[in-house]
Amino acid sequence: MKKSILSIILAGALSVTLFSACSLPKSEKPDKTEETQEEAEPAEEEPAEEEQAAEPEEASSRPQAVVVNYYDYVATPESYQMLESMSCDTLHLAKECSSAFPQLDATLEKAAAEVEAEMKKEMEANNALETYKDTPEMFEDTTWTSERSLKVLRSDEKVLCARSGFYSYMGGAHGIYGTYGENYDVATGEKITSKVAFKDSDKLYELLKNKLHSEYADLESEFEQFNADEGLRSYVDGEAELQFTLDPVCVTFYFQPYDFATYAAGAQDLTFTYDELSGIIDEKYVPDKEEPFITPGGTFDLDGDGNLDSVYAYVSHEDGNDYEGIIKISVNAGKEEYKLSQYTTGDEVTLYYVNTAGGKNYVFVRGSVENDYSFMTICDIEGGKLTEKDTLWYKPWVSLWVEEEDFYEYAGYALTDPEAMPLAEHMDFMATYSGRKTYHMNDDGTLTSDDKYFMVSGNITLHTKAEVTADEVDEEGNVTKKDVGVPVGSDLILYRTNGSFSLEGDAIVDAWLNNEGGQLLRFHFTQEYPHEVNGVPEEDLFEMLYYAG
């Protein structure tokens, strides 16, 4: 976990506070004369009444969730053989949102600290290095592993919901795994337990029991052996913690291996629509039908017949091509299958179900190709069929979360609101970085942004070794002074750009001179190689260039 300049540039931290990514309620938003996602200072000379009038009449109070990963490992000091690895995802609010939802933020921070501390404690207790000294043969063909993964399923004015998965392998015939739900009341910040969410335990028990026996009829003999009905009752009555998620489409209950059957039988999940739970679930946790959403995973009504369909994306390697994977979307365990035209070089893809403000439905599939390029393929849903519409080269924001000596944690922004999607493009203008904007999805499946510029992620500083001139600009991009001299030995901190893959002509890059918030200078960067910056070859202008690849 040594410090990597390149990884910091690519993953990067937010160089500015982007309030709109959080969709703060009107009373919490900073005063601005325009509703953009730029980091624009309030125009103090404007009357407060005019600034308030420029705000939208209705503003969402959705929290912006992020997932932070902590990673650690144990290796032998001589040969650096990996003995044990630990990966832990935790749920947080984006830092620009924490003050808007103080109770929720405090709850999440406490829960995350407890989970991370527990996994660290277990890793210390395992003492893999001492075990290796006594029985090195135990690690000849295996590595001990503990993983906690997490996906944010819902974030609206009512509920923040995530699904976490745990896997642990410490030798033996197989590992252990489980799926858990994290549901939080956005208004109070409190965790939503089954006792809080479901009002009629008897009706809930009957609903769960009937579906358990109907959907897993082949396990009846094992259910009898494990006293499944009695075990289910203990969950519903609160003797054991009932695991569930409240996503925008449905409610899913999770039961782990060995709960009702043998390990070989796997885990049992039971999914219900909110209509099926009417009279059982507290209505305040039922999502508003008009509320747009994005949710990862694939349980939704694809063909509009009122029944939930299982839709998931996976990677298939054909004709011996292990490099370029074909992305396939399977519907209801392969009853229908679609193949996308965009290949991926990764082994994993993520499928999202999207419902726009106008009630249109789409599917996103996220993947990646070489050199850190990420893409989103948009598929239309019409008549219960998927039709590939477009591929965009976007990825969600990633921000530096914790920075310590030789150690970093990064926060990945969750996509939950089609009206405020924190997306970034790969940029190569004066350096390699992610250019960030906040987008909203239109009913026709296109994505647009009200932002004027892409904000540069990360604290990328270029040091000049030759003289150059630039124009001074203000936060709105207006030129306030022309031909400002930039002395040799100056630091230029990259701030924003108009560049993108679709840009025609030269790119504009604005940079702070020597310190953020000081003098803002504008440079013109030619796309043709060799690149020039305001008429000076970039290799002659800067001491070091931070490009990937």
What does this entry look like structurally?
This protein has 549 residues and is of the alpha+beta class. It folds into 3 domains: 5-193 and 241-248 and 287-441, Heat Shock Protein 90 (2-Layer Sandwich), CATH 3.30.565.40; 194-240 and 249-286; 460-541, no CATH class. The chain has 9 helices and 32 strands. The strands form 6 sheets. Strands 18, 21, 22, 23, 24, 25, 26, 27, 28, 29 and 30 form an 11-stranded antiparallel beta sheet that branches. A 7-stranded mixed beta sheet has the order 5-4-3-2-1-20-19, covered by helices on one side. A 5-stranded antiparallel beta sheet has the order 9-14-15-16-17, with no helix packed on it. Helix 6 (201-215) packs antiparallel against helix 8 (228-236). The model is unreliable at 1-21 and 23-60 (pLDDT under 50).
The rounded distance between the terminal residues' Cα atoms is: 21 Å
Number of helices: 9
Compute the number of structural domains: 3
Strand content: 35-45%
Looking at CATH, which topology of the largest domain would you report? Heat Shock Protein 90
CATH superfamily of the largest domain: Fervidobacterium nodosum Rt17-B1 like
Radius of gyration: 26 Å
Please write the CATH class name of the largest domain.
Alpha Beta
Second CATH tier, the architecture of the largest domain: 2-Layer Sandwich
Helix and strand composition category = alpha+beta
Q: How much helix, percentage-wise, in residues?
A: 10-25%
Instruction: Calculate the mean pLDDT score and round it.
Output: 88
Q: Give the beta-strand count.
A: 32
Major sheet characteristics: 11 strands, antiparallel
The stretches of 5 or more residues where confidence is low (pLDDT under 50) are 1-21, 23-60
Q: What does the overall shape look like? A: globular
